[in-house]
Give the backbone structure.
Amino acid sequence: LRLSNASLDRLPGQIRRPAYNRSDIRPGIVHLGIGAFHRAHQAVVIDDLLAQGASGWGIVGASLRSPDTRDALIPQDCLYTLAVRSGAGTEHRIIGSVLETIVAPANPAVLIARMADPATRIVSLTVTEKGYCHTPQAGELDEQHPDIVHDLQHPDAPRSAPGFIVAALARRQAAGTVPFTILSCDNLAANGHTAKRIVTQFAALRSRELARWIEDEVAFPSTMVDRIVPETTEADRASVAAALGMTDAWPVVTEPFTQWIVEDRFPAGRPDFVAAGVQLVSDVTPFEHMKLRLLNASHSALAYLGYLAGFETIAAAMTDARFAAYARQVMEDAAPTLEMPAGTDLAAYSVSLLQRFSNPALHHRTWQIAMDGSQKLPQRLLAAMQDRLRMGLPIDTHALAVAGWMRYVTARDEAGGAIDVRDPIAAKLKAIADSAGPVADRLAPALLEVSSIFGTLGGDTRMRSAVTQALAKLYEVGARQAVQEFRPV
Ligand code: NAD
Protein backbone atom coordinates (compact mmCIF):
# COMPACT_ATOMS: atom_id res chain seq x y z
CA LEU A 1 0.00 0.00 0.00
CA ARG A 2 1.32 3.45 -0.89
CA LEU A 3 0.47 6.92 0.36
CA SER A 4 -2.01 8.67 -2.01
CA ASN A 5 -5.35 10.51 -1.95
CA ALA A 6 -7.12 7.14 -2.04
CA SER A 7 -5.19 5.64 0.88
CA LEU A 8 -5.36 8.68 3.21
CA ASP A 9 -8.27 7.27 5.21
CA ARG A 10 -6.36 4.05 5.87
CA LEU A 11 -3.67 5.83 7.87
CA PRO A 12 -3.58 5.27 11.64
CA GLY A 13 -5.90 7.70 13.43
CA GLN A 14 -3.20 9.72 15.22
CA ILE A 15 -1.53 10.79 11.97
CA ARG A 16 -2.48 14.32 10.97
CA ARG A 17 -3.57 14.77 7.34
CA PRO A 18 -4.70 17.65 5.14
CA ALA A 19 -7.67 19.29 6.87
CA TYR A 20 -9.15 20.50 3.57
CA ASN A 21 -10.51 19.08 0.37
CA ARG A 22 -7.51 18.95 -1.96
CA SER A 23 -9.66 19.09 -5.08
CA ASP A 24 -10.82 22.60 -4.05
CA ILE A 25 -7.26 23.96 -3.98
CA ARG A 26 -5.90 26.02 -6.88
CA PRO A 27 -2.24 26.86 -7.41
CA GLY A 28 -0.96 30.37 -6.60
CA ILE A 29 2.73 29.67 -6.00
CA VAL A 30 5.36 28.15 -8.28
CA HIS A 31 8.35 26.90 -6.31
CA LEU A 32 11.72 26.39 -8.01
CA GLY A 33 13.92 23.75 -6.34
CA ILE A 34 11.46 21.39 -4.67
CA GLY A 35 14.00 19.72 -2.38
CA ALA A 36 13.74 18.52 1.20
CA PHE A 37 13.92 21.97 2.72
CA HIS A 38 10.97 23.49 0.88
CA ARG A 39 8.78 20.50 1.69
CA ALA A 40 9.61 20.72 5.41
CA HIS A 41 9.32 24.50 5.67
CA GLN A 42 7.30 26.69 3.28
CA ALA A 43 5.04 23.86 2.12
CA VAL A 44 4.07 23.21 5.75
CA VAL A 45 3.14 26.87 6.26
CA ILE A 46 1.00 26.71 3.13
CA ASP A 47 -0.58 23.44 4.33
CA ASP A 48 -1.59 25.25 7.53
CA LEU A 49 -3.03 28.15 5.52
CA LEU A 50 -4.99 25.87 3.19
CA ALA A 51 -6.58 24.33 6.28
CA GLN A 52 -7.66 27.87 7.23
CA GLY A 53 -9.35 28.41 3.87
CA ALA A 54 -6.65 30.06 1.70
CA SER A 55 -7.65 27.85 -1.22
CA GLY A 56 -5.94 29.90 -3.97
CA TRP A 57 -2.40 29.30 -2.67
CA GLY A 58 -1.50 25.73 -3.57
CA ILE A 59 2.04 24.99 -4.76
CA VAL A 60 3.38 23.84 -8.12
CA GLY A 61 6.86 22.47 -7.40
CA ALA A 62 9.57 22.43 -10.05
CA SER A 63 12.91 20.65 -10.12
CA LEU A 64 15.54 22.36 -12.25
CA ARG A 65 17.77 19.30 -12.17
CA SER A 66 16.73 15.77 -11.30
CA PRO A 67 13.36 14.07 -11.92
CA ASP A 68 13.65 12.19 -8.59
CA THR A 69 11.12 14.28 -6.67
CA ARG A 70 8.50 14.13 -9.42
CA ASP A 71 9.01 10.41 -9.96
CA ALA A 72 8.48 9.75 -6.26
CA LEU A 73 5.59 12.17 -5.73
CA ILE A 74 3.39 11.61 -8.79
CA PRO A 75 2.28 8.08 -7.76
CA GLN A 76 1.41 9.61 -4.36
CA ASP A 77 -0.71 12.49 -5.73
CA CYS A 78 2.15 14.71 -4.45
CA LEU A 79 1.39 13.79 -0.83
CA TYR A 80 4.32 13.16 1.49
CA THR A 81 5.09 12.73 5.18
CA LEU A 82 6.68 15.32 7.44
CA ALA A 83 8.43 13.46 10.29
CA VAL A 84 9.26 15.83 13.16
CA ARG A 85 11.91 14.31 15.42
CA SER A 86 13.05 15.23 18.90
CA GLY A 87 14.37 13.41 21.96
CA ALA A 88 10.72 12.78 22.86
CA GLY A 89 9.96 10.80 19.69
CA THR A 90 8.62 11.43 16.20
CA GLU A 91 5.39 13.08 15.08
CA HIS A 92 4.15 12.24 11.58
CA ARG A 93 1.97 14.49 9.48
CA ILE A 94 0.84 14.27 5.84
CA ILE A 95 1.34 17.44 3.81
CA GLY A 96 -1.02 18.16 0.91
CA SER A 97 -0.05 21.65 -0.27
CA VAL A 98 2.00 20.53 -3.28
CA LEU A 99 -0.46 19.99 -6.12
CA GLU A 100 1.78 19.29 -9.07
CA THR A 101 5.46 18.73 -9.85
CA ILE A 102 7.31 19.71 -13.01
CA VAL A 103 10.76 18.58 -14.14
CA ALA A 104 12.14 21.66 -15.84
CA PRO A 105 14.76 20.06 -18.14
CA ALA A 106 12.08 17.75 -19.57
CA ASN A 107 9.38 20.42 -19.85
CA PRO A 108 10.79 23.95 -19.86
CA ALA A 109 7.78 25.31 -21.78
CA VAL A 110 5.32 23.87 -19.26
CA LEU A 111 7.19 25.49 -16.38
CA ILE A 112 7.39 28.88 -18.12
CA ALA A 113 3.66 28.70 -18.92
CA ARG A 114 2.84 27.92 -15.27
CA MET A 115 4.97 30.83 -14.08
CA ALA A 116 3.43 33.17 -16.68
CA ASP A 117 -0.13 32.16 -15.71
CA PRO A 118 -1.85 35.16 -14.04
CA ALA A 119 -2.94 32.81 -11.21
CA THR A 120 0.72 32.53 -10.16
CA ARG A 121 1.38 35.40 -7.81
CA ILE A 122 4.52 34.19 -6.04
CA VAL A 123 7.57 32.39 -7.43
CA SER A 124 9.66 31.10 -4.54
CA LEU A 125 13.11 29.53 -4.64
CA THR A 126 15.35 27.06 -2.81
CA VAL A 127 17.76 26.31 -5.64
CA THR A 128 20.85 26.23 -3.34
CA GLU A 129 23.44 28.99 -3.32
CA LYS A 130 25.00 27.86 -6.59
CA GLY A 131 21.62 28.01 -8.36
CA TYR A 132 21.93 31.80 -8.53
CA CYS A 133 24.82 31.54 -11.03
CA HIS A 134 26.59 34.39 -9.30
CA THR A 135 30.00 35.21 -7.92
CA PRO A 136 29.40 34.53 -4.21
CA GLN A 137 31.71 37.24 -2.87
CA ALA A 138 30.39 40.12 -4.98
CA GLY A 139 26.85 38.82 -5.50
CA GLU A 140 26.94 39.68 -9.23
CA LEU A 141 25.68 37.53 -12.10
CA ASP A 142 28.47 35.31 -13.46
CA GLU A 143 28.08 36.01 -17.18
CA GLN A 144 30.54 33.20 -18.01
CA HIS A 145 28.49 30.60 -16.12
CA PRO A 146 27.71 27.78 -18.59
CA ASP A 147 23.98 27.85 -17.70
CA ILE A 148 23.81 31.61 -18.26
CA VAL A 149 25.63 31.34 -21.59
CA HIS A 150 23.19 28.59 -22.57
CA ASP A 151 20.11 30.51 -21.44
CA LEU A 152 21.02 33.58 -23.46
CA GLN A 153 21.16 31.39 -26.54
CA HIS A 154 17.94 29.52 -25.66
CA PRO A 155 15.70 32.01 -23.85
CA ASP A 156 12.62 29.80 -24.24
CA ALA A 157 14.28 26.60 -23.03
CA PRO A 158 16.47 27.81 -20.17
CA ARG A 159 18.30 25.76 -17.53
CA SER A 160 18.97 28.23 -14.74
CA ALA A 161 16.66 29.80 -12.19
CA PRO A 162 17.38 33.33 -13.48
CA GLY A 163 16.71 32.03 -17.01
CA PHE A 164 13.26 30.69 -16.08
CA ILE A 165 12.32 33.76 -14.06
CA VAL A 166 13.23 36.16 -16.85
CA ALA A 167 11.51 34.01 -19.51
CA ALA A 168 8.29 34.03 -17.49
CA LEU A 169 8.51 37.72 -16.61
CA ALA A 170 9.07 38.60 -20.28
CA ARG A 171 5.93 36.63 -21.09
CA ARG A 172 3.96 38.50 -18.42
CA GLN A 173 5.26 41.89 -19.50
CA ALA A 174 4.23 41.17 -23.10
CA ALA A 175 0.77 40.03 -21.98
CA GLY A 176 0.26 42.99 -19.65
CA THR A 177 -0.01 40.66 -16.63
CA VAL A 178 1.16 41.96 -13.25
CA PRO A 179 4.50 40.38 -12.33
CA PHE A 180 4.72 37.72 -9.62
CA THR A 181 6.70 38.38 -6.46
CA ILE A 182 10.02 36.53 -6.22
CA LEU A 183 10.64 34.98 -2.84
CA SER A 184 14.15 33.64 -2.32
CA CYS A 185 14.39 31.21 0.60
CA ASP A 186 18.04 30.31 0.13
CA ASN A 187 20.81 30.96 2.65
CA LEU A 188 22.29 33.90 0.75
CA ALA A 189 23.20 37.25 2.21
CA ALA A 190 20.42 39.73 1.34
CA ASN A 191 18.69 36.95 -0.61
CA GLY A 192 16.00 39.23 -2.08
CA HIS A 193 18.43 41.96 -3.13
CA THR A 194 20.83 39.38 -4.51
CA ALA A 195 18.08 37.67 -6.49
CA LYS A 196 16.96 41.05 -7.84
CA ARG A 197 20.48 42.02 -8.92
CA ILE A 198 21.05 38.71 -10.69
CA VAL A 199 17.66 38.57 -12.40
CA THR A 200 17.92 42.18 -13.54
CA GLN A 201 21.48 41.70 -14.81
CA PHE A 202 20.43 38.62 -16.73
CA ALA A 203 17.38 40.41 -18.18
CA ALA A 204 19.60 43.33 -19.28
CA LEU A 205 21.59 40.90 -21.41
CA ARG A 206 18.32 40.14 -23.23
CA SER A 207 16.64 43.53 -23.33
CA ARG A 208 17.26 46.81 -21.57
CA GLU A 209 13.56 47.58 -21.51
CA LEU A 210 12.72 44.29 -19.85
CA ALA A 211 15.43 44.89 -17.25
CA ARG A 212 14.00 48.34 -16.51
CA TRP A 213 10.49 46.91 -16.11
CA ILE A 214 11.82 44.28 -13.67
CA GLU A 215 13.78 46.91 -11.78
CA ASP A 216 10.69 49.10 -11.40
CA GLU A 217 7.82 46.62 -11.10
CA VAL A 218 9.00 43.33 -9.58
CA ALA A 219 9.22 42.82 -5.82
CA PHE A 220 11.98 40.66 -4.32
CA PRO A 221 11.35 40.60 -0.56
CA SER A 222 14.21 39.12 1.46
CA THR A 223 13.52 36.26 3.86
CA MET A 224 15.15 34.49 6.76
CA VAL A 225 14.35 30.79 6.84
CA ASP A 226 15.29 28.42 9.62
CA ARG A 227 14.61 24.73 10.09
CA ILE A 228 17.18 21.96 10.01
CA VAL A 229 16.25 19.45 7.31
CA PRO A 230 18.83 16.71 6.66
CA GLU A 231 18.75 14.64 3.51
CA THR A 232 16.25 11.76 3.86
CA THR A 233 17.85 8.31 4.23
CA GLU A 234 16.67 4.73 3.59
CA ALA A 235 16.39 4.28 7.35
CA ASP A 236 14.08 7.33 7.48
CA ARG A 237 11.86 5.84 4.77
CA ALA A 238 11.68 2.56 6.68
CA SER A 239 10.70 4.22 9.97
CA VAL A 240 8.08 6.38 8.25
CA ALA A 241 6.62 3.32 6.51
CA ALA A 242 6.40 1.54 9.86
CA ALA A 243 4.52 4.48 11.41
CA LEU A 244 2.19 4.91 8.42
CA GLY A 245 1.52 1.26 7.74
CA MET A 246 2.15 2.11 4.08
CA THR A 247 4.98 3.27 1.84
CA ASP A 248 6.03 6.86 1.27
CA ALA A 249 8.89 7.10 -1.23
CA TRP A 250 9.70 10.75 -0.43
CA PRO A 251 9.19 11.73 3.23
CA VAL A 252 11.09 14.58 4.87
CA VAL A 253 12.59 14.50 8.35
CA THR A 254 13.08 17.61 10.46
CA GLU A 255 13.25 19.14 13.96
CA PRO A 256 10.39 20.77 15.93
CA PHE A 257 11.82 24.30 15.51
CA THR A 258 10.73 26.33 12.50
CA GLN A 259 11.03 30.02 11.70
CA TRP A 260 10.28 32.17 8.67
CA ILE A 261 10.74 35.95 8.65
CA VAL A 262 9.65 37.72 5.48
CA GLU A 263 9.72 41.31 4.24
CA ASP A 264 6.16 42.34 3.54
CA ARG A 265 6.35 43.42 -0.11
CA PHE A 266 3.88 41.46 -2.26
CA PRO A 267 2.28 43.77 -4.85
CA ALA A 268 0.54 40.81 -6.51
CA GLY A 269 -0.90 39.64 -3.19
CA ARG A 270 0.02 36.99 -0.65
CA PRO A 271 -1.69 34.58 1.69
CA ASP A 272 -2.23 35.62 5.30
CA PHE A 273 1.21 34.35 6.32
CA VAL A 274 0.88 35.66 9.88
CA ALA A 275 -1.98 33.25 10.51
CA ALA A 276 0.53 30.42 10.09
CA GLY A 277 3.20 31.89 12.36
CA VAL A 278 5.31 33.73 9.77
CA GLN A 279 6.83 37.02 10.99
CA LEU A 280 6.35 39.90 8.54
CA VAL A 281 8.89 42.70 8.88
CA SER A 282 9.98 45.74 6.86
CA ASP A 283 13.69 44.78 6.90
CA VAL A 284 14.90 41.23 7.40
CA THR A 285 18.64 42.07 7.24
CA PRO A 286 19.51 41.87 10.96
CA PHE A 287 17.71 38.52 11.39
CA GLU A 288 19.32 37.13 8.28
CA HIS A 289 22.81 38.13 9.44
CA MET A 290 22.08 36.68 12.85
CA LYS A 291 21.12 33.35 11.36
CA LEU A 292 23.90 33.15 8.76
CA ARG A 293 26.63 34.22 11.18
CA LEU A 294 25.50 32.22 14.22
CA LEU A 295 23.67 29.12 12.95
CA ASN A 296 25.11 28.60 9.47
CA ALA A 297 28.64 29.72 10.40
CA SER A 298 28.94 27.34 13.35
CA HIS A 299 27.28 24.59 11.28
CA SER A 300 29.94 24.98 8.57
CA ALA A 301 32.72 25.13 11.19
CA LEU A 302 31.47 21.88 12.75
CA ALA A 303 31.04 20.36 9.29
CA TYR A 304 34.63 20.84 8.06
CA LEU A 305 36.47 20.30 11.35
CA GLY A 306 34.01 17.59 12.42
CA TYR A 307 34.32 15.70 9.14
CA LEU A 308 38.13 15.81 9.36
CA ALA A 309 37.95 14.61 12.99
CA GLY A 310 35.83 11.63 11.93
CA PHE A 311 32.37 12.76 13.09
CA GLU A 312 29.65 11.67 10.70
CA THR A 313 26.93 13.98 11.99
CA ILE A 314 26.61 17.35 13.69
CA ALA A 315 25.03 15.72 16.74
CA ALA A 316 28.01 13.36 17.03
CA ALA A 317 30.46 16.29 16.90
CA MET A 318 28.39 18.04 19.58
CA THR A 319 28.89 15.12 21.98
CA ASP A 320 32.54 16.21 22.15
CA ALA A 321 32.59 19.04 24.71
CA ARG A 322 35.46 20.85 22.98
CA PHE A 323 33.65 20.86 19.63
CA ALA A 324 30.53 22.19 21.34
CA ALA A 325 32.59 24.89 23.04
CA TYR A 326 34.22 25.77 19.74
CA ALA A 327 30.81 26.12 18.03
CA ARG A 328 29.72 28.41 20.86
CA GLN A 329 32.89 30.47 20.36
CA VAL A 330 32.10 30.94 16.65
CA MET A 331 28.74 32.39 17.70
CA GLU A 332 30.25 34.54 20.43
CA ASP A 333 32.79 35.99 18.01
CA ALA A 334 30.11 36.74 15.41
CA ALA A 335 27.84 38.49 17.94
CA PRO A 336 29.68 41.85 18.06
CA THR A 337 29.38 42.13 14.25
CA LEU A 338 25.55 42.10 14.44
CA GLU A 339 23.29 45.09 14.87
CA MET A 340 20.09 43.66 16.26
CA PRO A 341 16.79 45.35 17.09
CA ALA A 342 16.37 46.14 20.80
CA GLY A 343 15.20 43.16 22.79
CA THR A 344 17.02 40.50 20.73
CA ASP A 345 18.73 38.05 23.08
CA LEU A 346 21.69 36.66 21.15
CA ALA A 347 22.92 34.63 24.11
CA ALA A 348 19.60 32.82 24.42
CA TYR A 349 19.47 32.32 20.66
CA SER A 350 22.96 30.76 20.73
CA VAL A 351 22.00 28.41 23.56
CA SER A 352 18.94 27.27 21.62
CA LEU A 353 21.11 26.64 18.53
CA LEU A 354 23.51 24.47 20.52
CA GLN A 355 20.54 22.46 21.80
CA ARG A 356 19.16 22.04 18.28
CA PHE A 357 22.57 20.91 16.97
CA SER A 358 22.66 18.29 19.73
CA ASN A 359 19.30 16.72 18.77
CA PRO A 360 20.38 13.06 18.56
CA ALA A 361 17.32 12.13 16.50
CA LEU A 362 18.51 14.24 13.53
CA HIS A 363 21.27 12.68 11.47
CA HIS A 364 22.55 15.77 9.75
CA ARG A 365 25.72 14.67 8.02
CA THR A 366 28.82 16.85 8.24
CA TRP A 367 29.48 15.87 4.61
CA GLN A 368 26.13 17.34 3.49
CA ILE A 369 26.73 20.69 5.20
CA ALA A 370 30.32 20.75 3.86
CA MET A 371 29.01 20.83 0.27
CA ASP A 372 29.39 23.95 -1.86
CA GLY A 373 31.72 25.72 0.54
CA SER A 374 32.86 28.14 -2.17
CA GLN A 375 29.28 29.42 -2.26
CA LYS A 376 28.73 29.46 1.50
CA LEU A 377 31.91 30.81 3.09
CA PRO A 378 31.40 34.52 2.24
CA GLN A 379 28.05 35.02 3.97
CA ARG A 380 28.65 32.54 6.80
CA LEU A 381 32.25 33.15 7.90
CA LEU A 382 34.05 35.78 5.84
CA ALA A 383 31.64 38.69 6.33
CA ALA A 384 31.99 38.41 10.11
CA MET A 385 35.80 38.17 9.80
CA GLN A 386 35.82 41.31 7.68
CA ASP A 387 33.76 43.13 10.31
CA ARG A 388 35.94 41.91 13.16
CA LEU A 389 39.09 43.09 11.37
CA ARG A 390 37.48 46.48 10.85
CA MET A 391 36.71 46.59 14.57
CA GLY A 392 40.29 45.61 15.47
CA LEU A 393 39.20 42.25 16.92
CA PRO A 394 41.07 38.93 16.51
CA ILE A 395 39.80 36.42 13.93
CA ASP A 396 41.47 33.20 15.04
CA THR A 397 38.21 31.37 15.86
CA HIS A 398 36.82 31.82 12.36
CA ALA A 399 40.27 31.29 10.85
CA LEU A 400 40.30 27.72 12.20
CA ALA A 401 37.00 27.01 10.41
CA VAL A 402 38.32 28.50 7.14
CA ALA A 403 41.47 26.40 7.55
CA GLY A 404 39.20 23.36 8.06
CA TRP A 405 37.54 24.14 4.73
CA MET A 406 40.99 24.45 3.08
CA ARG A 407 42.11 21.12 4.49
CA TYR A 408 38.79 19.59 3.36
CA VAL A 409 38.96 20.80 -0.25
CA THR A 410 42.35 19.15 -0.74
CA ALA A 411 40.06 16.08 -1.11
CA ARG A 412 42.38 13.99 1.11
CA ASP A 413 41.37 13.23 4.69
CA GLU A 414 43.75 12.95 7.61
CA ALA A 415 44.26 9.22 7.03
CA GLY A 416 45.05 9.81 3.34
CA GLY A 417 41.63 8.60 2.14
CA ALA A 418 39.66 10.41 -0.56
CA ILE A 419 37.03 13.03 0.37
CA ASP A 420 34.09 13.32 -2.03
CA VAL A 421 34.18 17.12 -2.26
CA ARG A 422 31.00 18.51 -3.84
CA ASP A 423 31.42 22.08 -5.01
CA PRO A 424 30.96 23.87 -8.34
CA ILE A 425 34.67 24.73 -8.30
CA ALA A 426 35.92 21.51 -6.65
CA ALA A 427 38.27 20.75 -9.56
CA LYS A 428 39.85 24.20 -9.43
CA LEU A 429 40.29 23.99 -5.64
CA LYS A 430 41.86 20.53 -5.92
CA ALA A 431 44.26 21.73 -8.61
CA ILE A 432 45.38 24.59 -6.35
CA ALA A 433 45.81 22.17 -3.45
CA ASP A 434 47.76 19.69 -5.58
CA SER A 435 50.19 22.28 -6.82
CA ALA A 436 50.71 23.82 -3.36
CA GLY A 437 51.10 20.49 -1.60
CA PRO A 438 50.20 19.82 2.06
CA VAL A 439 52.17 22.81 3.30
CA ALA A 440 50.20 25.49 5.15
CA ASP A 441 52.50 28.36 4.09
CA ARG A 442 51.84 27.57 0.45
CA LEU A 443 48.27 26.22 0.48
CA ALA A 444 46.61 28.93 2.58
CA PRO A 445 47.87 31.92 0.51
CA ALA A 446 47.10 30.07 -2.74
CA LEU A 447 43.47 29.42 -1.77
CA LEU A 448 43.06 32.93 -0.35
CA GLU A 449 43.74 34.19 -3.85
CA VAL A 450 40.48 32.71 -5.15
CA SER A 451 38.79 36.09 -5.38
CA SER A 452 35.28 34.76 -6.17
CA ILE A 453 35.32 33.51 -2.56
CA PHE A 454 37.64 35.82 -0.63
CA GLY A 455 37.58 39.10 -2.56
CA THR A 456 39.92 41.67 -1.04
CA LEU A 457 39.90 39.88 2.34
CA GLY A 458 42.25 37.28 0.82
CA GLY A 459 44.97 39.93 0.52
CA ASP A 460 44.71 41.16 4.11
CA THR A 461 47.92 40.31 5.98
CA ARG A 462 46.07 39.60 9.25
CA MET A 463 43.78 37.19 7.37
CA ARG A 464 46.75 35.48 5.73
CA SER A 465 48.60 35.04 8.95
CA ALA A 466 45.60 33.79 11.00
CA VAL A 467 44.47 31.28 8.39
CA THR A 468 47.99 30.03 7.62
CA GLN A 469 48.66 29.50 11.32
CA ALA A 470 45.39 27.60 11.80
CA LEU A 471 46.06 25.43 8.76
CA ALA A 472 49.57 24.68 10.02
CA LYS A 473 48.02 23.51 13.28
CA LEU A 474 45.61 21.24 11.41
CA TYR A 475 48.46 19.64 9.50
CA GLU A 476 50.52 19.32 12.65
CA VAL A 477 48.06 17.75 15.11
CA GLY A 478 44.88 16.98 13.14
CA ALA A 479 41.41 18.51 13.49
CA ARG A 480 40.35 16.74 16.66
CA GLN A 481 43.43 17.84 18.57
CA ALA A 482 43.40 21.34 17.05
CA VAL A 483 39.86 21.86 18.35
CA GLN A 484 40.82 20.34 21.73
CA GLU A 485 43.68 22.77 22.07
CA PHE A 486 41.90 25.79 20.64
CA ARG A 487 41.66 28.76 22.99
CA PRO A 488 40.44 32.08 21.65
CA VAL A 489 42.89 34.98 21.96
P1 NAD B 1 17.95 19.44 -1.69
O1 NAD B 1 19.23 18.88 -2.20
O2 NAD B 1 16.93 18.53 -1.11
O3 NAD B 1 17.23 20.29 -2.83
C1 NAD B 1 17.92 21.20 -3.61
C2 NAD B 1 17.05 21.66 -4.77
O4 NAD B 1 17.79 22.60 -5.51
C3 NAD B 1 16.67 20.55 -5.72
O5 NAD B 1 15.36 20.77 -6.17
C4 NAD B 1 17.67 20.72 -6.85
O6 NAD B 1 17.13 20.28 -8.09
C5 NAD B 1 17.86 22.20 -6.87
N1 NAD B 1 19.16 22.58 -7.42
C6 NAD B 1 20.38 22.09 -7.09
N2 NAD B 1 21.32 22.69 -7.83
C7 NAD B 1 20.69 23.59 -8.63
C8 NAD B 1 21.13 24.51 -9.61
N3 NAD B 1 22.41 24.64 -9.92
N4 NAD B 1 20.19 25.27 -10.23
C9 NAD B 1 18.90 25.15 -9.92
N5 NAD B 1 18.42 24.29 -9.00
C10 NAD B 1 19.31 23.53 -8.37
O7 NAD B 1 18.41 20.56 -0.63
P2 NAD B 1 17.49 21.29 0.46
O8 NAD B 1 17.76 20.68 1.78
O9 NAD B 1 16.11 21.37 -0.04
O10 NAD B 1 18.14 22.73 0.51
C11 NAD B 1 17.99 23.65 -0.56
C12 NAD B 1 18.37 25.03 -0.08
O11 NAD B 1 17.46 25.45 0.92
C13 NAD B 1 19.73 25.14 0.59
O12 NAD B 1 20.78 25.24 -0.31
C14 NAD B 1 19.56 26.40 1.41
O13 NAD B 1 19.81 27.55 0.63
C15 NAD B 1 18.09 26.35 1.81
N6 NAD B 1 17.96 25.91 3.21
C16 NAD B 1 18.08 24.59 3.56
C17 NAD B 1 18.01 24.22 4.90
C18 NAD B 1 18.15 22.78 5.34
O14 NAD B 1 18.25 22.52 6.55
N7 NAD B 1 18.12 21.79 4.47
C19 NAD B 1 17.79 25.19 5.88
C20 NAD B 1 17.65 26.53 5.49
C21 NAD B 1 17.74 26.86 4.15
The chain is about 45% helix and 10% strand. The two ends are 60 Å apart (CA to CA). The first strand starts at residue 27 and ends at 32.
